[in-house]
Write a structure and sequence with these properties.
Structural class of chain A: alpha/beta
Number of strands of chain B: 8
Helix content of chain A: 55-70%
Number of domains of chain B: 2
Oligomer: heterodimer
Radius of gyration of chain B: 16 Å
Largest sheet of chain B: 8 strands, mixed
CATH superfamily of the largest domain in chain A: ATP synthase, F1 complex, gamma subunit
CATH class of the largest domain in chain A: Alpha Beta
Number of strands of chain A: 6
Strand content of chain A: 5-15%
CATH class of the largest domain in chain B: Mainly Beta
Largest interface: A-B, 35 and 29 residues
CATH topology of the largest domain in chain B: ATP Synthase, domain 1
Shape of chain A: elongated
Structural class of chain B: alpha+beta
CATH architecture of the largest domain in chain A: 3-Layer(aba) Sandwich
Number of helices of chain A: 7
Helix content of chain B: 25-40%
Strand order of the largest sheet of chain A: 3-2-1-4-5
CATH architecture of the largest domain in chain B: Sandwich
Number of domains of chain A: 2
Distance between the termini of chain B: 25 Å
Shape of chain B: globular
Distance between the termini of chain A: 34 Å
Largest sheet of chain A: 5 strands, mixed
Order of helices and strands of chain B: EEEEEEEEHH
Chain lengths: 307, 132
Amino acid sequence: MASFREIKRRIGGVKNIQQITRAMKMVAAARLRRAEEAILALRPYSSRLDSLCARFLGDAIGSEHAFMNERPVKGVAVLSICSDRGLCGAYNNRIVDATQGLLRGRADQRHFLLFVGHRGVSRLARAGRHMHRTYEDIFDPVHFTTAQAIRHEVEDLFLSGQVDEVLVVFTEFFSLLRQHVVTRRLLPCPPERHRQELADHYGRELPDGLHVEPAEMDRAAEQVYIYEPDYETIGDHLLEYNLTVQIYRTLLEAQASEHGARMMAMDNATQNAEEMVEELTLLMNRVRQEDITREILDVVGGAEAVK
Amino acid sequence: MHLTIVTPERTVMASENVEHVLLPAENGELGILPGHVAMACSLQVGRIRVDMADEFIELATSGGFAEVLDDRIIIAAETAEKAGEIDLERADRARDRAQEKLRGRDDGTIDHARAQGALRRALNRLGVATEA
C-alpha cells in the first residue's frame, strides 16, 4: 500500500488539476456567453434578409437560378465544423464520426472535404482522408469574412460542376445540455426551403424589436416596390448573401456548442477530482491510523521486553 | 424618417430623426428623402451618408441591401463602419495584398475579380477613415 506521504502528495496533485479544470470551466462559460451574444446579434440582420428573401425568392425567381439547380449527385462537398482546441468531451469525435459515416454512405461519389478546426483536421488526416480545404483559428470571434471565404469555395465547386450537392455537418446549439450533430444541405437550395426557414425564424423572439410583424409583411406584400438596379440583380445577390449568412450561422452555432461542450466536460472533470480527493482522503486517514497503531504496538512491545 | 442599419455582427445604428440618406446603389448614388416610394435596392461598395437634425454620419459599407417602406429605411449591409471604427492597419494590409494579386495580367479568373473587389473595399475604408 502507498505510504501516507505519497497519498498526501497525490491529493495535492488532484487538487491542482481540479483548480485548472475549474478555471477552464469559467473561461468556457464566459466564452459561451459571448458566443450566444453573437448568435443573437445576427438575428436582426438575418430576419431582415429573410423577409426580403421571402418577398423576392418565394415565387418569382423560381428554379432558374444556378443555386437551385437540382441534378444527379456524382460529387459531394462536405463542410465539417470542429474546434481548434480539445478538452471538450466528445464534441470533435461526434463530428468526425458523422462525417466519416456520411462519406462511407456515399462511396460511389466524388468527395470534397472542407474542414474547419484543427482537431478534426488532424484526426481525419490520420484516417487517410484527403482534405480539399482546411480552415484553422477562425473562432473567438467568428468573422463574417470567414463565412464569405467558405461560401466562395463551395460556390466555385458547385457552379463549376465538380460537386452537385454541398452539405454541412455541425453541432447545433439549443442549450448547455442539448446539442446535436446535424447535417444540412447548403446547395442546391430549392425555393420552398426559404419559406420553411422563414417560418421557423418567425417562431423565435428577436431581442430588440426588430422582429418582423406579420402585419408588416402584409403591408409590404401589397406595396408596389421599385427595384434598383433591377429585380434579377437583387434576387441573385439575395441568394448569395443568404448562403453566406447560413454558413455564418452554422459557424456561430458550432462555436457556442464547442464552449458548451467544454464547459460540461470541465464541470465533470472538476466533480471527478472532488470525488477522487474524498476517496484519497479516506485512504490517507486509514493509512495514518495503521501507522499509529503499528507504532503503539512497537512501543508496548518494547516496554514488555524491558520488564 | 426612421433608419436602421444592421450587419451580421451587430446593429450599427437605429435612429428616428433622419432627414436625408445617400446610398451607394449599383448604378450610382441614390438619395432618400421623406415620402419616398417603396423600394428595394442592392448596394455596392461605397459610402452611406446619413443627415440627421443635429449630426452628419458617414459609413463605409461593402455592399448589402436597402429597403424603403413608409419612411422606414432598413439597411442590411455586409459591413458598415463609421470613420472611427475602421481598422486602418487592416485596410492597409488588405489593399497591399489585393494590389499584389492584381500585379499579374487579368486572366479572367474568379480570383482576379475577387482581388479587385477586395481592393475596392480597402480603398473605400481608407477613404472614409482618412477624410473624417
